[in-house]
Amino acid sequence: VTENRSDLEDLHLYATPRxxxxxxxxxxxxxxxxxxxxxxxxxxxxxxxPKRAKKWRSLSKQELNQIxxxxxxxxxxxxxxxxxxxxxxxxxxxxxxxxxxxxxxxxAGFRIAFNMFDTDGNEMVDKKExxxxxxxxxKKNEKRERxxxxxxxxxxxxxxxxYHTSTNSVLKREGEDLVPRSYWDTLRRSTSQALFSDxxxxxxxxxxxxxxxxxxxxxxxxxxxxxxxxEDFYRFMDNLQTEVLEIEFLSYSNGMNTISEEDFAHILLxxxxxxxxxxxxxxxxxRIPEEKGITFDEFRSFFQFLNNLEDFTIAMQMYNFASRSxxxxxxxxxxxxxxxxxxxxxxxxxxxxxxxxxxxDQLSYKEFIGIMKDRLNRGFRGYKPIQRYTTFKSCVRKExxxx
Length: 403
What we know:
The chain is 54% helix and 4% strand. With 403 residues, the protein is mainly alpha-helical.
């Protein structure tokens, strides 16, 4: 175990917020490179800070091989994969970024992602094609690197990628001044280059110098020779979204079949840049005095809708509602037209009671879409803890359950 890490803490000064978060939650180190366990990843996307002080535990080659030997094949995946693996898994920094991308993408985006990896168009993705991801994210990261001591930045690259990177660009330089907004945009733009010829060559070098991870073994087998089809890829991504939502839901439900409307509001607001969250919570308490509860199906359907927020925004513009308020019926209809997701009347009413700050039973673009766009950044920036207030009925319900 690396004690205190005092000699490496100043690397935080050279790290981006995403790198800082990965370093803060990662708990394993192998040959100088940091890794998250599946447990670490779940903690990173559902909590503000690690539950316990992290010390990077150094793995031996034998220990790493043992962990990878216990990795199930992709056809044995489930919505409890990360929870079942717990501490028995290793996730690299670029895989962390990739998994974060998936959490906020609509199901239609899964096909786009798969096709971007499938460079030869054979409806299968092999290990070499998937490793292009490593190089794409590394190159984007170099553009965002903070200036400073080159030695420190080299140490940081070693921690994140497991090897010292060169300063020669791999991606084409046309339009480099137009930095994509997100890692998803980077993946989409970079993988559209002519069959990744230069990136694929680099992937060969990476493959020979890097260690296998849980994700690579899960997708491509222990020998790395298996290929990934779209059905298995889709199921993995859907399971990941479901697992994270289940964990968030269960953390508030205390074993019950529902969470309170107030808890639902807490989960929504904790990922946004809203300054005065108490006003939203108080607004909802006054307007929903009788707690009915939000089921997991309602909870999941709402976040599936949020992952389609861009399409919903376009639909709103087509309805000519983008700059003015809409009622609950129009909202529900626009959600279904744009995303195919049906939201229950109670869920829509709850959303209105949370975000309709002027209490006119209408939602404006600023009141809802502007705030919810913040949530799509989940995991890519720091979290803002929200003070929890619990209704009397919710207290009673949880007290009864605890008995």
